[in-house]
Design goal:
The chain is of the alpha/beta class. It has a single domain (4-285), classed as 3-Layer(aba) Sandwich (Rossmann fold). Helices cover 31% and strands 16% of the residues. It has helices spanning 4-10, 30-42, 89-105, 119-126, 129-144, 163-166, 183-192, 203-215, 217-225, 281-285, 310-317, and strands at residues 18-23, 47-52, 70-74, 112-116, 151-157, 175-181, 237-245, 257-265, 270-272. It has a 9-stranded mixed β-sheet with strand order 3-2-4-5-1-6-7-8-9, with helices on both faces. Helix 3 (89-105) packs parallel to helix 5 and helix 4 packs across helix 5.
Amino acid sequence: MPSLLSSTLAHTSRNQHLLLLQSSAAQTCLPVLRAIVKQAIQRARETTILFCFLYRPSSFSPSRLPSDRILVVDKTASVPGYDDASHSEQDRVPGLKKELLETIRSAPPGPLSVVIDSVDTLCSDIGSLSETARLLSEALALVREREGSSRLVLHALALSPLFPLLNQTRFSPSLTHLTAHPSALLMHLASAYLTPPPPLSPDEKFWGVFIPISERHYESEKLVFGPGGEGSGSPAEFVVEVLVRGGVDNAGRRRGTQRVLEGWSAALGSPCELHQLESLKALWSKKNVIEVQSAPDPTQDLSFNLNLTLEQQRSRSQVPLPYAHEGKPQAAGAILYDPDSADDLDDDDPDDDLDI
């Protein structure tokens, strides 16, 4: 069964039209973005539009990108306020929005992949968070109108103010979200919280620890840039959190939310299992693998017997519960009260001894 990350790169699902990639100061997601562009170019009958706002086009391929399969719109040299070719602020922003949407509309018929390498830079150029979100919503609507496995790929930083808007189901009911984490974060969880990644720990326990800590991005930055850190996240290998929300599978069934952790290895040039990462092999080499065994019996080796025989269990099950109203029909909203032994519940007038 292919991994979620491999399926995301190959884009085997025709119902996921939005892909978000999230980098941070501690770990870049650029190698995954580069692989997405590479595989999009290799798919037959598919056109790719790459909007470069942060990275140069050469960052996505060591050789020249094939012009017949990909259209590159390079905006890295266009800096508002410093570019001589820029018009006034009043004309520049509508011109940028119009160029982006017209480029998508004029793409050849067939499946289409639209990649924007930095929505943060795009938002900075436009100068408005709401206008940027509206522009991306219009771009997503144009992508959805396309046939086949068309999608919009957006890359942003972890603290981007756009992410709370792009993550909403109102923006897109279905979503694939890839977040890059340094492998040092998993080592830290294993040593400080005794919670290594699955299958070394139960899923519920691990995600309960991992999610709140990973959302505090300063934790990862402290591990990477603090004392003993490497000074930067490794582009050679890191951990990718894959979150898939909504959509429909190949059998036509509605899907819920899936969340997994997978590794990324530059040596392999593809996703991999976590235990294949060199930086995480210490977790497995220290015999941290938890074998599925029955829990030890706490009643063993005791000087007295805590267990019941079959006859004792049968007799115990036949003892009626001390509840006076058990099995009796009750009116809706009735107040049930079991009298205590000290309660005086006779029908006589409690004040009959008073001379009133």
